[in-house]
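If your schedule permits, I should be very grateful for your opinion on a structural question. I would ask you to consider whether the tokens describe a fold that such a sequence might reasonably adopt. Thank you for your consideration; the sequence and its tokens are set out here.
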Amino acid sequence: MGSSISPFATTIVVSILVAACGSAPSPTPITTPPPAGPPAPSTPALASMSPSGSVAPTADAAVWLDAGDLREPRNATNVVVVGTGEVLVVGSDYQTSWGSACGAATSGSDSVEIGNPEKGVWKKTTSLPSRREAPVLVALRDGRALLTGGETGENDGNVAYSSTYVFDPADRSWTQSGLMNTARSNPAAVLLADGRVLVAGGFYNDRTQARVLDSSELWDPVSGTWTRTGRLAGTRWGASAVTLEDGRVLIVGGVASQESAPIEQASAEIYDPDSGRWTSAGTLATARSGFVLVALSDGGALVAGGLGDLATTGLPRLSTVERFDPGANRWSAAEDLPFPVVGASGIRLADGRVLLAGGSVREPELIDADAGTFVSGFTADAALFDPDTGVWTATTPMPSPRAGASVVLLADGSAVFAGGSAYEGPGTPPCPEAHPQVVRYVPGS
């Protein structure tokens, strides 16, 4: 792999006979892993090990700061920075990026909270007008945030929403905006350079019919209305998208069909806001889900990790990384990650480097069925990718393992990680245990 980090990631032992709770009370550097979450009768405690194959020590000066506990722990959520500098957290779901097999039926979530990560204070705020799963949340240029799409929970038939709401941090209110032309859950969504919002693909369901979508729509912040724009070359559900430096939008992956086992797409497409058209952006060497997609400062993009395609590879965790060249309109292999991982969190830092942290590096391993003890497959390891050298290097690990966290960048250059799962959870299939703690990564020199 050519990296300074060992390919073996941190493991943790879990016993369903003990419960743990607590977190640091103030935003000071964390030097020991805190307990995983609040007590519950069936909640395992996490006791960290000192495995011989952990990530090699790092010499950089990066630190992780405690940013407080969410009022409601969330396995999967939507997070943006609003105009006040606070972080808005919307919704909660069991459907995780690391491939949770939890069979629990849900009713969706209308839960919203807002916080100041520097002070470590989080407060409940105005709830959504209706419960929903798998919506999208986009930070707007004027400091507000737009939420659209999603679906009712499984208990209510998974009916897709077309409704749109805008959150104003000044008065903590949600205001209804226009309806999408096509209701959809789990679409890709990005903010364009001109302030409009693009949504693409997703899944439509109205109890009588269900289908994966190839349509795209644009939301206008002036009129508050949605208009149709170019169609994707193929249907995509659960794809990832980023806005590139030149203002175009790159969309990657996603599931093309709901029939039988989901097959991830290896293809990518680019949207041109000037023409309103999608064109091919090449094909990944490896189709994958649960990967990290980050736009690079050189105009390209990076895809890292994920789960391989079920039909061809049997869903292995991937360490491979691919880099998009917008000039050549093609993908090429980059240096592998230090360890194979799915459900990691990734973001571009202010200096152009890419931070990747956490995720699931292996399936949990049952040690003692009678005692309910198992080794979690989650990691706390973190690494930095330098786009100039193309090299991954170790950085300070997270305070405790987690997978599926949402991450945003603050104005001061620190990265805030919220939500995600602390471990896979007890039961068959397991229902993940949400991580309550928010942490902030402050880059070193």
Summary: Residues 19 and 40 are 6 Å apart (CA to CA). The longest strand covers residues 63-69. The two ends are 25 Å apart (CA to CA).
